[in-house]
C-alpha cells in the first residue's frame, strides 16, 4: 500500500475544518473584520466556554487581536456570501471594511456585526506561535444573536462554502489561498515560543 501524498493528507485534514466565521477586532478606535475557517471549541465545560483559532501573522487583524487581547467570533448564515467577500478577500490595512457593514460596540468594545447566526465575544487567555500564524485561546465573555428581525438561518459550514461559492469569486479565492499557503510554507518552521500576558 502506498503512502498518502501531501494533497491527499490535506484533503483528509479538511474533515477537521471549522465553519466559515467572521472575526472582528479593534485597536485604538480602528475596527476591522476578517473571515476564518480555523476556529474550534476549546473547552468541554459548559460554564467555561472557550474557543481557539489560527490567525496568519500577515493579516491586519493579527496585530489588532495580539495587541488588544480581544476579538468577537460570528457564526454566519448560509446566505452571507457577500459579507465573506467583503471581509475575507481584502485587507483592513487599506480599506475600512466595516464601513458598510451594520455593527455596534460589544461589551468589550469590539465591533459586533448586526447580521449573523450568533456571536461570541472573547478575551485571549493564551496564545501559541506556529511560525506563520498565532493560535489564540479565548474565554467567551459574552454571547448574542443576529438582529431579531432576521431569521437566524443555517450555519455556513466550510463544506457549504466551498460547494456554493459564486463561480465569479472562485479564481480570486484560490489566488488568496495560494498566496497564504506560499507564505505559510516559507514561515511555518520559524516558531518562537511566547508567554501571553493579559492585555
Ligand atoms: C473561507 C476563508 C477562510 C479563511 N480562513 C482564514 C484563517 O483560518 N486564518 C486566517 O488568518 N485567514 C483566513 N482567511 C483569510 C482572511 O480572511 C483574509 O486574509 C483577510 O483579508 C484578512 O483581513 P485583514 O488583513 O483585514 O485582517 C480566510 C479567508 C476565507 C475567504
What's a concise summary of this model?
The protein has 199 residues and is α+β, with helices and mostly antiparallel strands. The chain has helices spanning 6-13, 60-68, 81-88, 158-164, 170-187, and strands at residues 21-27, 30-36, 39-41, 50-56, 70-75, 103-105, 111-113, 118-129, 133-145.
Tell me the fraction of residues in β-strands, as a range: 25-35%
Strand order of the largest sheet: 2-1-5-8-9-4-3
Count of helices? Answer: 5
**What small molecules does this complex bind?**
flavin mononucleotide
Fraction of residues in H or I helices: 25-40%
Poorly predicted ranges (pLDDT <50, ≥5 residues)? none
DSSP summary, beta strand count:
9
Order of helices and strands: HEEEEHEHEEEEHH
Distance between the termini: 51 Å
Please supply descriptive tags for the structure shown above:
199 residues; alpha+beta; 7-stranded antiparallel beta sheet; two-stranded antiparallel sheet; 5 helices; 25% helix; 31% strand; globular; binds flavin mononucleotide
What would you note in describing this structure?
The chain has about 200 residues and is of the alpha+beta class. It is built from 5 helices and 9 strands, in the order αββββαβαββββαα. It has helices spanning about 5-15, 60-70, 80-90, 160-165, 170-185; strands at about 20-25, 30-35, 40, 50-55, 70-75, 105, 110-115, 120-130, 135-145. The strands form 2 sheets. A 7-stranded antiparallel beta sheet has the order 2-1-5-8-9-4-3. It has a two-stranded antiparallel ribbon with strand order 6-7. Strand 3 and strand 4 (about 50-55) form a beta hairpin. Flavin mononucleotide binds near residues 56 and 91.
Amino acid at each position: 500500500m502506498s503512502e498518502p501524498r501531501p494533497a491527499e493528507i490535506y484533503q483528509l485534514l479538511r474533515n477537521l475544518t471549522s465553519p466559515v466565521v467572521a472575526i472582528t477586532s479593534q485597536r485604538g478606535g480602528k475596527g476591522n473584520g476578517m473571515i476564518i475557517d480555523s476556529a474550534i471549541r476549546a473547552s468541554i465545560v459548559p460554564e467555561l466556554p472557550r474557543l481557539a483559532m489560527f490567525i496568519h501573522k500577515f493579516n491586519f487583524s493579527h496585530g489588532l487581536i495580539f495587541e488588544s487581547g480581544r476579538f468577537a467570533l460570528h457564526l454566519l448564515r448560509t446566505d452571507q456570501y457577500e459579507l465573506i467577500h467583503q471581509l475575507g478577500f481584502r485587507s483592513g490595512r487599506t480599506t475600512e471594511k466595516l464601513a458598510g457593514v451594520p455593527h455596534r460596540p460589544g461589551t468589550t468594545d469590539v465591533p459586533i456585526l448586526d447580521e449573523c447566526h450568533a456571536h461570541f465575544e472573547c478575551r485571549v487567555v493564551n496564545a501559541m506561535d506556529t511560525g506563520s500564524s498565532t493560535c489564540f485561546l479565548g474565554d467567551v465573555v459574552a454571547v448574542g444573536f443576529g438582529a431579531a428581525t432576521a431569521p437566524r438561518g443555517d450555519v455556513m459550514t466550510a463544506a457549504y462554502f466551498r460547494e456554493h461559492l459564486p463561480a465569479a469569486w472562485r479564481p480570486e479565492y484560490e489566488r488568496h489561498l495560494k498566496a497564504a499557503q506560499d507564505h505559510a510554507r516559507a514561515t511555518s518552521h520559524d516558531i518562537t515560543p511566547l508567554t501571553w500576558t493579559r492585555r
